[in-house]
Design goal:
There is one protein chain. The chain is of the alpha/beta class. About 35% of the residues lie in helices and about 25% in strands. The protein folds into two domains: about 80 residues, Ubiquitin-like (UB roll); about 150 residues, Cell division protein FtsQ/DivIB (Rossmann fold, 3-Layer(aba) Sandwich), CATH 3.40.50. A nine-stranded mixed beta sheet has the order 6-5-4-7-8-9-10-11-12, with helices on one face. The chain has a three-stranded mixed beta sheet with strand order 1-3-2, covered by helices on one side. A hairpin with a 4-residue loop joins strand 5 and strand 6. Helix 5 crosses helix 6. It is elongated.
Length: about 270
């Protein structure tokens, strides 16, 4: 009987302790809810949207942020699930990295790394159209393909060059992945190099993959040129010099084959 009484006392103490813990937990939860979650002092007063380097974002604005992430700007900062918001941001094709933090009393600080397009991709066999918002694809400097999913991207990409190929495998041009098609990779390399070497009307309008070794380009000034996959720096430098020399002579280039090292064939307009 005494053993039963001892066990009963211990069980009673344990029960009382558990009840106290439940009430304490409930009190803390209720206090958190009232002091922070439902407190108007912690309402979201500002959503700071910047890049990781502290600059204004080019493609992600507040309207697209709220539309694509379901962020409620009328809530408190403690109601916002920062991890869930970050995951929603990473689902956007123009975002490669994101960071979300709270700052009292009402600042939600969002920092992102944006993917900058350098060209359009077009492939007739896959139905990928050049400069088409619905059926077109953009590509960044690393060769990652992504859709033109916002007005800001559309405006930015309006004057970007196009890299085209007649036929490719679906696995070679996939959204969210780097291009694996050999010719398109060399065409993208040419676009990246030309961005540093050619300016104004000399800039590229499009690049076409013609075969296993050659590319054809057209500049904004209307000059068509044939290049090989390789020695791109030399060929682009020659193109710039030829255009400048023709301008000095009061003439305009129409077409040029940049592959030969000497005796470059040139057609004037």
């Amino acid at each position: 009987m005494f053993d039963c009484l001892k066990f009963g006392r211990r069980f009673l103490k344990l029960g009382i302790a558990m009840i106290v813990m439940v009430f304490v937990g409930f009190g803390l939860s209720y206090g958190w809810q009232k002091l922070f979650v439902e407190n108007d002092e912690f309402l979201v007063q500002e959503v700071s949207l910047k890049t990781m380097s502290g600059e204004d974002t080019l493609f992600l604005n507040h309207e697209r942020l709220i539309e694509q992430t379901a962020l409620d700007p009328a809530t408190t900062i403690f109601t916002v699930d920062t991890d869930q918001l970050r995951e929603a941001l990473l689902e956007l094709p123009e975002i490669t990295d994101a960071r979300v933090r709270r700052r009292l009393p009402g600042l939600l600080k969002i920092e992102v790394t944006e993917r900058h397009p350098v060209a359009w991709v077009a492939c007739r066999s896959l139905g990928i159209r050049e400069r088409d918002r619905d059926l077109g694809l953009l590509v960044d400097v690393d060769g990652v393909v992504f859709p033109c999913a916002s007005d800001a991207l559309w405006d930015y990409a309006d004057k970007l060059p196009v890299i085209m190929i007649k036929a490719a495998e679906r696995s070679e041009i996939m959204e969210g992945q780097a291009i694996t098609q050999k010719g398109l990779k060399h065409a993208l390399e040419l676009v990246n190099r030309a961005a540093e070497k050619l300016q104004g009307v000399e800039s590229l309008a499009w690049v076409v993959v013609t075969d296993e070794i050659m590319l054809e380009i057209k500049t904004l000034g209307g000059v068509k040129a044939t290049l090989s996959y390789y020695e791109q720096d030399r060929q682009l430098d020659n193109l710039s010099r030829l255009i400048s020399h023709a301008d000095e002579q009061g003439r305009s280039l129409a077409q040029v084959n940049l592959i030969p090292r000497r005796y470059v064939p040139v057609l004037f307009r």
